[in-house]
Amino acid sequence: MNTNTSNNAVPASAAPAASGRSARAGKIRNGAIAFAALGGGALLAVGAPLAASAHVSVDPSSGAAGSYAVLTFAVGHGCEGSPTTSLTFQIPEEINAVTPTVDANWDIAKNLVPLAKPVTDAHGNQLAERVGTVVYTAKTPLADGYRDTVSFQVQLPADAANTSLVFPVTQTCEVGQTVWDQVAKKGQDPESLESPAPTVAVGPAAAASGHGHGDDDGDGDGDSATPAAHDDAATSTGASVDVLGRVLGIAGLALGAVGIVVAVSARRGRGAAAGAGAGASGGTSGTSTTSGTTDSDNTNKGGE
């Protein structure tokens, strides 16, 4: 009897198994890349607003000389985790009158200081004192990680064009305090400062402007006379954009988009690998069957 048995047949499960391992490895690798990209994008997107609110900011940060502006100051954290109890704003010497906006969360006090030389206000009244500080005392301490705003109206000095007005702020907390009084030097990025003071850039006077009215006590701190002044303030508010926050936000979105592309590519790659594995499994099965048939035929012939 002559029996011819083939020992070179490839097991039917070998090729699909190898293909499956390769597909799984690619899936894990591409999934990790996609996750890292999406995670990085999310961190940048979240980090943008956090960076923008890391100090006491003012909005608008610019205005025309001689115009009235409602300055809104934002605080978004306490003193190394301690809740905020008060905010004290130092008013530049160039400003005599301040009109705080009533706020249900804060008690407000204006502290007057004597003027070195009496001045005449917009109503022709002689002023011997000016507002030196405005103090906001929290009715309930503002917890760390929560944001709030306070605001007051001032008239930007008519003779202050092309200068900057600095509003140093002392943030007092239940434990400790932070003094925001640093001013950037020429050419220095204010974001590089550890405790930058809120600053308002004063531009050239507008073509048409009015003086305050609705002031019954004669201290010159009344509301704006014309809607144009409010429009100017609103325009300044819209134009006041944190460039750093915008750049970080765009970078985060771009990185997130890259992660999506990688994830889609990985999904397509897995589909192609699965198809190739199925083809290889079919071909191997066919070869094994043929080999088995040949062996059977050879055995039968030997028996004959």
Plain-language structure description:
- With 304 residues, the protein is α+β, with helices and mostly antiparallel strands.
- The chain is 37% helix and 27% strand.
- The chain contains 3 helices and 12 strands, in the order αββββββββββββαα.
- The strands form 3 sheets. Strands 6-7-4-10-11 form a 5-stranded antiparallel beta sheet, with no helix packed on it.
Residues in β-strands, percent? 25-35%
Low-pLDDT stretches are 34-53, 209-243, 283-304
The count of β-strands is 12
Mean of residue pLDDT values: 73
| Percentage of residues assigned to helices | 25-40%
Please give the radius of gyration in angstroms: 36 Å
Quote the distance from N terminus to C terminus. 8 Å
Provide the spatial order of strands within the biggest beta sheet. Answer: 6-7-4-10-11
What is the count of helical runs?
3
Given the C-alpha coordinates, what overall shape results? elongated
What's the layout of helices and strands?
Blueprint: H1 14-52, E1 57-59, E2 62-64, E3 68-75, E4 84-90, E5 99-100, E6 106-120, E7 126-142, E8 148-155, E9 163-166, E10 169-173, E11 177-180, E12 199-203, H2 227-239, H3 243-303
Helix pairs in contact: 1-3
Defining traits:
304 residues; alpha+beta; five-stranded antiparallel β-sheet; four-stranded antiparallel β-sheet; 3 helices; disordered C terminus
Q: What's the gist of this structure?
A:
Helices cover 37% and strands 27% of the residues. It is α+β, with helices and mostly antiparallel strands and 304 residues long.
